Amino acid sequence: MALQDHSPSADGFFNVKKYFSAKNLKKDLPASIVVFLVALPLCLGIALASGAPLFAGVLTGIVGGIVVGAISGSQLSVAGPAAGLTAIVFAAIASLGSYETFLVAVVLAGCMQLIFGLVRAGIIANYFPSSVIEGMLAAIGIILIMKQFPHAVGYDADFEGDESFIQADHQNTFSAVFAAFSKINYGAVIIAAVSLLILNIWPKIKKVAIVPAPLLVVVIGSILAAVFTGTGIALQREQYVVIPVVNSATEFFGLFKAPDFSQMFSRGDIWLTAATIAIVASIESLLSLEAVDKIDPIKRVSPTNRELIAQGTGNVISGLLGGLPLTAVIVRSSANVNAGARTKVSAITHGLLLLLALLAIPTLINMIPLSCLAAILLMTGYKLTRIALFKHMWHKGIPQFVPFVVTILAVVLIDLLKGVAIGIFVAGFFILYTNLRNSYFYKITHDGEGKKTIHINLAEEVSFLNKAAIQLMLTNLPKGSDVIIDGSNSRYIDPDVLEIIHNYRHNAFTKGVIVQLKGIKDRYDMPKLKELDKA
Is 428 within a domain? Predict the structure, then answer.
């Protein structure tokens, strides 16, 4: 599907006039602040859970914003360190022996993704069922609400950004919510409640809505936290954002780490780790891309192969600088959409803000309570899992609703990739079931003497999956009928099905059936796979 003229990604690599128009900047700049505020604790939390330096998480967010944001053809997708890779990264760092050796795997993974993009592997994104993508979005919304609730009311020892049901702190998504009640900090509750009120009321006041509500939330939340200091409802240190403080240029450049390429060709486990990261990161990025296109108000279609090239470039640079592997991330991307972003300027600016926060204002950033950031994510989660979405999917019918619900349950109760895989399996079952039923069209007519003529029109594509259905149908045709099997509209009929048809024609006389074949060839060549993705 080609992009329309109004889509900036149709204008080449970077159209300055469109990206920096006053109309777009008015929406992109406030949205970039929201994404920055959401991304910062997630970058830090994922780095912590991965067993990597905190700086690596922020660095990955910077590269994801600036580099991937600039190259990607998606206008709303935001890249950064991904929660889905934490277990892989943690295990890889331990097994490879050093962080520097692990960085080699990150660079190699990026190179593999570049190859994926060049050979147009992004075409697989065309086969993600819509019901599964919708279910993934709703599940992410539920996960955000449940995972952020403990941060909103007090404290959660699990890392910020975790999406898995079983948590590293030996809790699970449900038990962590109940455990939060035993750790309630009323200062955090007040800040979260005030933040939610602002997020709901402030945008409706037109005269002041030019100031982004999330920015106001952060300012007021920080002020309230300062006011509560020294009282019985004061926040604890772990209830604030904690970003590394860089005191000098020398200290800043000392945080970068270089990959150790000395063992690249002597250790197969480095290449295995790289392949694992490349495959998982590519699938998660393509899923995120499809999901973002679903909720894009302008309904643009992002080029999947270009996205793989952008992600690969980002991972090469991130690995060379000492960062973590990155992917397109649905939480940040959905926050970007809900904040009203229109172009990739929002993602790029969020990367610049992460860099500025690290270099210029780390002390101010460390004054932000996690409870006010949790409120922002709670609102994002609510918008992703609204009741209207469930009603909409129900009205689409059982073949759409069941995979939708199964995907939600699987993603919430397991994790993102496994949950989506289960959803695709269930959706595939319904697709096959529908395909089996629609391999032919059946019509019966009668002549003046009451003799039946059965017209069987075969579908455009008749595969081996239709073999059983067609065999059963032919076997049960009434005796003494005239049968016309019409393949005029068929571009392809599987050899097994052709054999069944010819065998039936050969033996039909024993039942008094006269069979006429119309437009059916003796042999069909497999249809060539068209290039579905021109990007």
Answer: no
